[in-house]
Amino acid sequence: MPPNPDPRPIALFDSGEGGLTVLKHAWDLFPGENYLYAADSIHFPYGTKSLNQVRDFLWAFLDFFMTKNVKAIVVACNTATAAGLPLAQNRVPVPIIGVIEPGSRDALRYTKTDVIGVLSTEATYRSGIYPRVLQSYRPTVKVVSVPCSVLVTMAESGQTQGPEVAAHIRQCATPMLEYNADVVLLGCTHFPHMQRLFSTIIGGSVHIVDPGLATARFLPQACGPLNSHGRGHIEFFTTGDPQKAVRVARLLWSNFGGVPHALEWQHHQLVEIKRSHPV
Ligand code: DGL
Question: What is the dotted CATH code of the domain comprising 100-211?
């Protein structure tokens, strides 16, 4: 196996465990790459905060990634993408992509009724970014947006199955189906952790789009050829409790092999706390 020509890691960022749904697709497609995953667990959830606040968090993570010599950044969080992606592109000297554009393009490819349901956080919903992006590609498309914070919290704690989750999925999907949506876009990266249940409940009549897949597929276009052979490694940084974060990650992704690291907010900046965290 030839060595990876560019072993610098690809960074992914989310408020918590949600961005792992993007990382998993990237890892499946490009297992020879190295990844740095960062979760701002202490500020979770982002979806109930203002976009300005989330943007400030995003800037600090971009600065942290630059100290780690990353070769590309994926904002694996819809809320943070809505809060600051276009501006973020001018702040870092490496390619940076979000999940909203790739997911939207995928949704448009699948819809026949031209009605797309978008399930997201409150903040993404308030930003109006999905209708804006979807209609910029196809002005005739109708978008039925539904915010759902409860499902985000459930996924963050590792709860992705069972009657309670199912009831919330049904409740969120109902207005979309009433308006004849044939595509439901999971507009928060926490939701694909529940993809199996989404498919069981609404998968017969609608296509479910996980923007993480389209985002991972788009990576080589954004940052050049990537290694789809071999085996890289994953470093998992969190502003919360690293052991807990990795424990939940393993509930959500059974053979998750990320190595936990602690990050701390100090004067609005992120500082890595060097200690070992055996899990
Ligand atoms: N997973 C994130 C998103 O895609 C944020 C969820 C949250 O922290 O509210 O929007």
Answer: 3.40.50.1860
Q: Which of 249, 274, 278 is closest to 39 using CA atoms?
A: 249
CA angle (219 as vertex; 125, 209 as ends), nearest 5? 40
Question: Residue 1: pLDDT above 80?
Answer: no
Query: For the chain, what are the domain ranges?
Result: 10-98+214-273, 100-211
With the CA atoms of 70, 75, 81 and 87 taken in that order, what torsion angle do they form, in degrees rounded to the nearest 10?
A: 0
Q: Is the CB of 34 under 6 A from ligand 1?
A: no
CB 143 within 8 A of CB 150: no
Q: Indicate the CATH number for domain 10-98+214-273.
A: 3.40.50.1860
Which one has a higher pLDDT value, 204 or 122? Answer: 122
For residue 44, give the ligand 1 atom closest to its CA. 8
Cβ contacts of residue 266 below 8 Å, gap of 6+? none
Residue located nearest, by CA, to atom 2 of ligand 1: 77
> Which residue reads 């979309």 in tokens?
176
Mean pLDDT of the region 209-214:
98
The pLDDT of residue 278 is 52
Q: What is the pTM of this model?
A: 0.96
Same fold, 10-98+214-273 and 100-211: yes
223 is catalytic: no
